Structures are given as C-alpha cells and as structure tokens.
Amino acid sequence: MKTVAITQRVAIVPEYAERRDCLDQEWPKFLQACGLLPLALPNVSAVALALCERTQLCGLILSGGNDLVALGGDAPERDETEAALLSMARRRALPVIGVCRGMQLIQHAHGVPLQQVDGHVSPDQRISVDGRSRHVNSYHRVAARGSCPLLQVWAVADDGVVKAIRHRDEPVTGIMWHPERCAPFAADDIALFRRVFEAD
Known about the structure:
Blueprint: E1 2-6, E2 9-13, E3 18-22, H1 26-33, E4 36-40, H2 45-54, E5 57-62, H3 76-91, E6 96-99, H4 101-109, E7 115-116, E8 121-129, E9 132-139, E10 142-143, E11 151-157, E12 162-167, E13 172-175, H5 187-197
Parallel strand pairs: 1-4, 1-5, 5-6, 6-13
Antiparallel strand pairs: 2-3, 7-10, 8-9, 8-11, 11-12, 12-13
Helix pairs in contact: 2-3, 3-4
C-alpha cells in the first residue's frame, strides 16, 4: 500500500492544560478501504515537514475540524502547519485532497471569499456532483458561493454553496463532505481517493 500524509485537528483539553492532535479512527479504516496507509502529521510545522521529507508519500490529505483563524478559529498552529504542508505539496507536485476545513484552506490560499452559511449541518444533504445528484453528509457553517479562475467547481448544493473544487493546473482537489463519516463508505469517495492518489 502507498502512504498518504494526513493532518489532524487540534483538541484543547483545559483540565490537563493540553493541546492535543487527534484524528477520527474512521480515517484509517476509510484509507485502508482505498488501498492507502495514513501517516498522521503533528501540528508542529517543522516536524510535519521533516516527516514528509523522510517518507515516500503518494500525497497529502488536509482533514476536517477547527475553523481557520481568519474565520474565528483557535488553532493557529494548525493553520501554520497546513499552510506549510500545502506549499510543500504544491512545490513537489504531490496530490492533495482537502476535506471540509481542508478545502476551505485551499480556497483561502487562493483568495476565495468564505462566509457563514446556514443549512449545511446535516448527516444527509443532496448536492449536484459533476451534474448528477448525490447524497452526502455536511458538517460546516462556513463556505464559498463562488470560486476563482484556478479552482474549478465540480459540486454544488441546491443553494449555490460550493461543495467541491479542482485546481485547473495542479493535482489539488477539495470536497466539503466527510468520506470517513459515511457508513458504509461510499464507492464514489473510495474511487476518488484511489484515483487522486493512484492507489494500488
């Protein structure tokens, strides 16, 4: 199996005065179903970059959780780490998939305006994906209603909120739903990850 790097959310635990990195246990299960092995990266940019330099990777996943600091979030170390990882991946032409917050990070890096949206927290939401209807989950309150020339929109909600993007020139993809939270995992999501990361 190929190895793919994946970022983690920051969980603030006041009773222990700790800032913890964590990843839903469904992620390794989903990636295994895609023929991929995850390398979980810490929210310490120098360490995360060093791990990526020392590991043969097929790509990078920017996972969900935590708002961007620019949107009121409280995990600046994650913003710093993921911005550095995205830059590294783009320099190396490593495929990237941004999931929910990860897609927002990609949009923010390209100057796409993000705003508060209503009606996008639901375990089941109908969207249009490449012109066909599909049901996905949705757990975000921030999104974009437009894009920029470099980021092609390939999925939208009924209200016009952008649900998926592809970079026109680079192997960078974003989705606003959580494939790891589907039970069972969706065949379309497995196919997407296998295709982007060229999984065996």
